[in-house]
Amino acid sequence: xxxxxxxxxxxxxxxxxxxxxxxxxxxxxxxxxxxxxxxxxxxxxxxxxxxxxxxxxxxxxxxxxxxxxxxxxxxxxxxxxxxxxxxxxxxxxxxxxxxxxxxxxxxxxxxxxxxxxxxxxxxxxxxxxxxxxxxxxxxxxxxxxxxxxxxxxxxxxxxxxxxxxxxxxxxxxxxxxxxxxxxxxxxxxxxxxxxxxxxxxxxxxxxxxxxxxxxxxxxxxxxxxx
Length: 226
Fold this sequence. Notes:
phosphoprotein; 22% strand; alpha/beta; 13 strands; 5-stranded parallel sheet; 2 domains; 226 residues; elongated; Arc Repressor Mutant, subunit A; Rossmann fold; single chain; 8 helices
């Protein structure tokens, strides 16, 4: 149980939080609205939940009530409202912390670690994933080629991780887009996915013209090779 659920309708803020948490070794799941967040909460447990109070189709207070009806998952509220009434309401509902926007991402990480220590929770270690001469360390969000650090953008990393987690399985373009959606938001579509596949191949393949790590399966999609 490594995942932190991020419920935030502002995609820029969500992307910043998601990227920072990934760099800290956490896995993330991002929802931009109330109903998708509710489904995620009911589907599986999370290490911690970050809740925006104001959502386009509901509010974080109701989601916090749902969380507390299920288990004791730590909850941190994010809000633009810094008045005492909102803070008290959030804490009375069982939230563990309350952060007012704008905030610094390092402060958020510090608050998360503090809450997890109080709950005595630590992320489960993740085994490294091997793709030929590529080694992925999900705990640290690091990638190595021939044991040398390889720099990837957040989207390239998530794309590689999505394929690696499904190694040997053919993934449709739609499945891949769904896997990287929480990083890319609206910036990646079916047309530009080809560009990102090409860029990633140029970084991880010995010969991008004859790829062995990311294999095209004509008419179906892509798969990560052995």
